[in-house]
Design a protein that fits this description.
194 residues; mainly beta; Jelly Rolls; 2 domains; 6-stranded antiparallel sheet; 5-stranded antiparallel sheet; HutD-family protein
Length: 194
């Protein structure tokens, strides 16, 4: 097990792919053989971003996306064929980067976290840990994000205190036990394919 504490003051900011806003890059991975780190070489990314006005999402062919509101409420994602209801915070929605999506903000601006991965390169999950309890983590990379205030977790007997918006990046070669002891956290999980 390798555990790395990512401090919010060290996160980087970058423009959305479509230029419509700015996201905070919390953690990511790129193809090792890629000459440069860009959208084409991206394997996965965990990021947060404010959505302050209705507008289109970036077109991201070949990318699977998970999204969750962590601040505010009332977000709905609309595509020509369906709606994704995120009106209640800490609800996860899954969609593809090819979908034409426009946001509707029913109760003002929101803050969201996104976990995205190159299709075929990784399987991803995104869940809210709201109540103290334990869960088994499979081998892979896991990101525990302190979404609202501080939180305390235990991983294989070792305790970690995360300040608001900090993230614990955990790389596991084998399954491990995670316990949320206090606070509220968002858990992003990335499992390489193949």
């Amino acid at each position: 097990m390798k555990a790395t504490l990512l401090r919010s003051e060290d996160y980087t900011r970058a423009p959305w792919k479509n230029g419509g806003g700015i996201f905070t890059d919390i953690a990511d991975a790129y193809r090792k053989d890629a000459p440069q780190k860009n959208w084409d070489s991206l394997l996965w990314r965990f990021a947060s971003t404010p959505i302050v006005a209705p507008g289109p999402f970036s077109h991201m062919p070949g990318i699977d996306r998970l999204q969750m509101v962590v601040g505010g409420r009332g977000l709905v994602l609309k595509s020509p064929t369906q709606e994704f209801d995120e009106r209640e915070p800490f609800t996860t929605v899954r969609f593809t980067g090819e979908m034409e999506i426009v946001t509707a903000l029913e109760e003002g601006p929101v803050e969201v976290v996104n976990l995205m991965a190159r299709r075929g390169a990784a399987e991803i999950d995104l869940v809210a840990l709201r109540e103290p309890g334990t869960r088994l983590l499979a081998a892979g990379t896991h990101l525990v994000y302190a979404a609202r205030g501080d939180c305390r977790i235990r991983l294989d007997g070792e305790e970690f205190l995360l300040s608001h918006a900090d993230t614990l990046k955990v790389e596991l070669a084998a399954a491990s036990q995670l316990a949320l002891m206090s606070g509220l956290a968002v858990l992003g999980s990335i499992r390489p394919v193949g």
